Amino acid sequence: MTDIKKTPAGSKTAGQSIMLDRRQLLLGAAGAAIGTATLGVASGLGIRPARAADRTEISFASASFFGKEGLGDLVKAFNESQSRITVKFIELPPPSSSTEVYQGLVQQLARRNGTPDVFSQDVIWIAGFASAGWALPLDEYFPKDKRADYFPGTVAACTYGGKLTALPWFVDSGMFYYRKDLVEKHGGKVPETWADMAAMAAEAQKAGDAKFGYLWQGKQAEVLVCDAVEIIASNGGSILSADGKSSVIGDDAAVAAIQFLYDTINKTKISPQNVLSWDEEPSRQPFTSGEAMFMRNWSYVYPIAQDPKASHVVDKVAVAPLPHFAGGKSSACLGGYQLGVNANSKKREAAIEFLTWMSSPETQTRLALNFGLAPSRPAIFQDAKLKAEQPFMASLQNVFTGATPRPITPQYAKVTLALQSSISKALVSGNVKAELQAAAAQINKIVG
Ligand code: GLC
């Protein structure tokens, strides 16, 4: 690469239009930038682009995702890819701070003043945002033939009251990370039941091969609900009854599942007490630093585990479906963020154009490669580079598509707080049955 120089702001030399900063070159934006003297490049040089005023400005609010680049880089690439629209990025906290991201969005959308024009939304908020009338129905912009390019389950998750109120973006699901070398040493077979997992983890700990047997997320936060939903489902239980009108979280299947999590800390001792205050990143760190044998987490962890600058376990990690209870089936909690247009946006056309770009095969591939976020378009799972860099994605495609949703209700924000609080109390006190029955009673009042 030549000419990777920073030009002092304000200097206007003949060669300035080809003096891009290194990041732009690395991002492959150079061609587009040279050709169009776009906003991003020009402002980096301290000159105002001649036609900035002709551009429609829209705002995009989103949680910030963790990866080899930031979401701001994607926004910049969009701005540089065309000359009609400028997107202003409003960065919210990371998705692990789910409640804060949710509140940030609600505060803005509830003003009904059209800001932000576009937003990303956790799959659990779609029903609530749609029923509040904040999310523009997108059916006319993305008719049936376009929707056929996405996983039917994701389209269904983006549909509320018969209308498409979100555009599929990425799919997330809980995964079982394991250390290949340690599994090899302690039996050779990846455990499929929770009991086998606990036994193998305890053995590896005893042998001094792993400080921690199993890491998961017990913090009183959204991710705890995710961990709970999947382990409960892996015992045949669930949060809501089949008709969605009452809670069955106080039933035996759910109680036994949460009891297992309690026991990982207090009985089998394969998990440290600290998991009770850990969400995604604090539990990821000891795993990628080589201190743990097994971990439950999302797909974003894989590229980090394979990055020599961030990980001590490069090439030692693989991913499998989460274990299940004897007689049960493996289950993964459905996560992921989808795109929405503010129903009060006055710039719908621009918003739709940005949405289309964000969810395009190219951008979804970039999201998968650089952020470890799984595409909502099945075709991308076959991408050769993705298969080479993150082989688990294609092999676990059915884990993503078969994931178990959290309760689908416009009241989800209330349901999750009840769940977070009761499950957390159950895990701290060990009064699992009583706490889960209290949760059921509370949830019955909310959804009943
Ligand atoms: C991930 C999931 C999201 C979930 C969150 C919880 O970002 O994609 O659905 O709510 O984790 O921390």
What does it look like?
- The structure is a single chain.
- This protein has two domains: 56-168 and 336-402, D-Maltodextrin-Binding Protein, domain 2, CATH 3.40.190; 175-333 and 408-445, Periplasmic binding protein-like II (D-Maltodextrin-Binding Protein, domain 2, 3-Layer(aba) Sandwich), CATH 3.40.190.
- It is built from 21 helices and 13 strands.
- Strand 1, helix 4 (71-81) and strand 2 (85-92) form a beta-alpha-beta unit.
- The chain has helices spanning 22-26, 30-36, 39-44, 71-81, 98-109, 126-131, 144-147, 152-157, 180-185, 194-206, 222-233, 252-266, 280-288, 301-305, 348-358, 361-371, 384-389, 391-395, 397-401, 412-429, 432-447; strands spanning 56-63, 85-92, 118-122, 159-160, 163-164, 170-173, 175-179, 212-215, 292-297, 317-320, 334-335, 337-341, 374-375.
- Alpha-D-glucopyranose is lined by residues 95-96, 98, 122-124, 172, 222-223, 226, 298, 335-336.
- Residues 95-96, 98, 122-124, 172, 222-223, 226, 298, 335-336 line the site of alpha-D-glucopyranose.
Quick description:
The protein has 448 residues and is an alpha/beta fold. 42% of the residues lie in helices and 13% in strands. The protein has 2 domains: 56-168 and 336-402, D-Maltodextrin-Binding Protein, domain 2 (3-Layer(aba) Sandwich), CATH 3.40.190.10; 175-333 and 408-445, Periplasmic binding protein-like II (D-Maltodextrin-Binding Protein, domain 2), CATH 3.40.190.10.
Keywords:
2 domains, globular, D-Maltodextrin-Binding Protein, domain 2, 4-stranded mixed β-sheet, alpha/beta, binds alpha-D-glucopyranose, 21 helices, 448 residues
